[in-house]
Amino acid sequence: MMKVGVLISGRGSNLRSLVAATKEPGFPAAIVIVVSNKPDAPGLDVARAAGIPTAVVNHKDYPTREAFDAELDAVLCRAGVELICSAGFMRILSEGFVEAWRDRQLNIHPSLLPAFKGLHVHERVLETGCRITGCTVHFVRPAMDEGPIVAQVAVPVVPGDTPETLADRVLEAEHKLYPLALRLVAEGRTRIVGERVEIDGLPLEAQAPLFVPPVS
Ligand code: GAR
Predict the structure, then answer these.
(1) Structural domains for the chain
(2) Residue to substitute in 14, 46, 85, 112 for testing ligand 1 pocket (most ligand atoms within 8 angstroms of CB)
(3) What is the model's pLDDT at position 200?
(4) Residue 139 contacts by C-beta under 8 Å, 6 or more apart in sequence?
(5) Per-residue confidence in pLDDT tens, the chain, 216 aa
(6) Which residues pair with 157 in a beta bridge?
């Protein structure tokens, strides 16, 4: 059973999907702590309702990024965390922290990386006129929204979409994708080869993307 620490900053809907998955019998990972950098993050209530220990490491209480990251690291280590899942965690982590957790930290991002890194993803997808967008779970590297891709879901952009309707459709896909990606990693089925993720020895080209059809 892999011990997971989930990092959040807000609503925690991805956390909710991870909690639900990890409570299923036979799931190969358990969430041992949820850490928020914001004391009022609604996601903390999701954890509390599920009986999962929580911690707040408020970035405003630390003079430097490194001091904040050192405390975050200490909290995760004390809880026995083996794998971090960032789920809407909106702080940039220092290179030292990221390297200390190399290949042991996942992140979910609401685009088909490497396209649309950063913020305001759905606005930019709509401005660009993309017909397809999606979401990505990847191992974390020091550069923001970069790192070996574990799994992706493609999601269509449909006529009349606003950033909000698109975000909702992508979020629904995120909730399916993150538990699946966590399962693959926790079962030891992923290997990082040359900054690409191989699953169970399957060549990358043989890993079909997941696809969520348009809502009618
Ligand atoms: C999710 O859409 C997640 O992909 C995104 O923030 C949202 C958090 O929602 N993360 C990023 O943009 C990170 N670059 P949640 O708190 O309901 O899970």
Answers:
(1) 1-101 (3.40.50.170), 108-216 (3.40.50.170)
(2) 14
(3) 80
(4) 103, 105, 106, 107, 147, 148, 150, 192, 197
(5) 999 999 999 999 999 999 999 999 999 999 999 999 999 999 999 999 999 999 999 999 999 999 999 999 999 999 999 999 999 999 999 999 999 999 999 999 999 999 999 999 999 999 999 999 999 999 999 999 999 999 999 999 999 999 999 999 999 999 999 999 999 999 999 999 999 998 886 656 556 666 665 554
(6) none
Dihedral sign of CA atoms 158, 160, 164, 168 in order:
negative
Tokens at residue 214, please?
């348009």
Q: Is 169 in the pocket of ligand 1 (CB under 6 A)?
A: no
- For residue 102, what are the CA distances in angstroms to 3, 83, 121, 153? 16, 10, 26, 24
109 is catalytic: yes
**Cα first-last separation, the chain:** 39
- For residues 206 and 210, give the distance between their C-alpha atoms in angstroms, rounded to a whole number: 12
Nearest ligand 1 atom to alpha carbon 170: 2
DSSP code for 214: P
In Å, how far are 25, 83, 213, 214 from 189, measured between CA atoms? 19, 14, 27, 30
Count of residues in the chain: 216
38 CB within 6 A, ligand 1: no
